[in-house]
Amino acid sequence: MKTPDLTNSRSRHRLIAVLAAAVAVLVLTGIGVYGLITGTPTHDPGSDGGTEPEPVVTAPSDPVPTTTPRLPTVAASDDPETFARNVATALFAWDTASGFMPLDYTSVILTVGDPSGAEQAGLASDIATYLPNREAWVELRHYATAQHLAIDDAYVPDAWDTAVEQAQPGQLAPGTVAYTIEGTRHREGLWNDEPVRSEHAVAFTVFIVCGPSYDTCHLLRLSELDNPLR
């Protein structure tokens, strides 16, 4: 093969063109091989051609209730056990997909609280420990989490009889009594559009006051969840 005469300007231009073409072929080949290794790149239709966004994990969108949501209510009663059961049922009845927030459910229980107001602040604090906080509530709402309680038993604990015997005169209003509730907390929701459920045994004590102090029963305080009087 004859070596080209690089002193000739026409020969130099021809060689430069050939080299440029070869470089272009190599670049295109490299891009093709890279594409085969990495696969088809993910394209963001809204991208402006900048760097690729990092992957984002998304939760399901907030569910839309199919019926008009309603807050639970505590049915009034002058019977201590019936009222204790009514309180327990309402306390555990909530639905994050309803559009209501924990404070809305708290207000339901407070409406049947101590009429004198002496125990209202303490009762509000007690109720807060039974409900998810605001941040957890917002997260649970993504999965349409709802809860209810199935009561297995309700009884006056032996420890309450002892407390009454040891109480000072006038320390307890007439008709004050404690009921321990034992039951199963049921939760249901959606995970990847599939229904999921869980069950958990719970026990707690409600402190109420009924007649002769009042015509109907009222809630005074709640024990710590799963730490009831026995």
Structure overview:
With 230 residues, the chain is of the alpha+beta class. It folds into two domains: 1-40; 80-222, Nuclear Transport Factor 2, Chain: A. The protein contains six helices and five strands, in the order ααβαααβαβββ. The protein has helices at residues 9-38, 80-91, 102-110, 120-128, 134-141, 158-166, and strands spanning 94-95, 146-155, 176-191, 194-209, 218-222. It has a five-stranded antiparallel beta sheet with strand order 1-2-3-4-5, with helices on one face. Strand 3 and strand 4 (194-209) form a beta hairpin. Helix 3 crosses helix 4. The longest helix is centred in the N-terminal third of the chain and has 30 residues, at 9-38. The chain is elongated. Mean pLDDT is 80; it is low at 9-13 and 15-62.
Counting DSSP H or I runs of 4 or more residues, the number of helices is: 6
The main sheet comes to: 5 strands, antiparallel
Indicate how many domains the architecture comprises.
2
Instruction: Label the CATH architecture of the largest domain.
Output: Roll
Average of per-residue pLDDT values: 80
The amount of beta strand, in percent, is: 15-25%
Measured as a percent range, the helix fraction is 25-40%
| Structural class determined from secondary elements | alpha+beta
CATH class of the largest domain: Alpha Beta
- Computed over alpha carbons, the radius of gyration is 35 Å
Task: Kindly report the spatial arrangement of strands forming the biggest sheet.
Answer: 1-2-3-4-5
Keywords: Membrane, Transmembrane, Transmembrane helix
Transmembrane segments: 15-37
Region (Disordered): 42-76
Biased composition (Low complexity): 64-74
